[in-house]
Amino acid sequence: MKVVSFDLDDTLADKNFDDALWHREIPKLYAAKRGLPFEEALAFCEAAYDAESDKSIHWYDINYWLGEFGLVGEKQKLIAELRPLVRLFPDALPCLARLEAAGCRLAIVSNATREFMAFKLEADGLGSHFGDVFSMTSDFKIVKKDAAAFLGICGRLNAQPSQVWHVGDHYKFDYEVPRSVGINAFYLDRKKEKKGEFVVHDLNEFADRVLGC
Predict the structure, then answer these.
(1) Looking at the structure, do residues 184 and 164 belong to the same domain, yes or no?
(2) Which of 85, 111, 145 is the last residue of a domain?
(3) Domain that holds residue 160
(4) Do 50 and 143 fall into the same domain?
(5) What is the pTM of this model?
(6) Please, are residues 152 and 158 in contact by the beta-carbon 8 Å criterion?
(7) What is the pLDDT of residues 173-202, one digit of tens each?
């Protein structure tokens, strides 16, 4: 049985929710709290995100950022208001259906926190397609920059790296790192900026590659 794992954000689900949260609503709250123009608050928040970088588990943690910005107590309202913005890419469910029909075992391997994954997996019944869901930051306290993260996932799946296919939109985290340990990793480049043997431009193309092997 082939094990096929997917990144979640900007792979199965688009960034509509995340962009609204991190680059609109949190800066709006910070602007109101500090009496700043929105653009000044946005620049401050984005500089803070960049300084932490996506290699840190804090980068993904809303509780950390609300604490940093003095906005503790705003989380539930934010999530409730923005939750309807979660959207899947049009190719997500057709890809999963093809792989399921072929007998593949499907998993999600994401840096997103469990808290965010829980409601994103409810979008259009997405979670029903996956028997295995892993949050690297919540479950293992690491991000996908570490090869050990993917080896640990293989252990959890009781699969050799050569039995696992993975796809995601982050060139290092979803392609270079898993491929370095023998996983059949593909880089999802929806903008069609890269070419290569292991670059795919949509999830249907990825399913073709998995099923053609």
Answers:
(1) yes
(2) 85
(3) 3-14+87-212
(4) no
(5) 0.94
(6) no
(7) 999 999 999 999 999 999 999 889 999 999
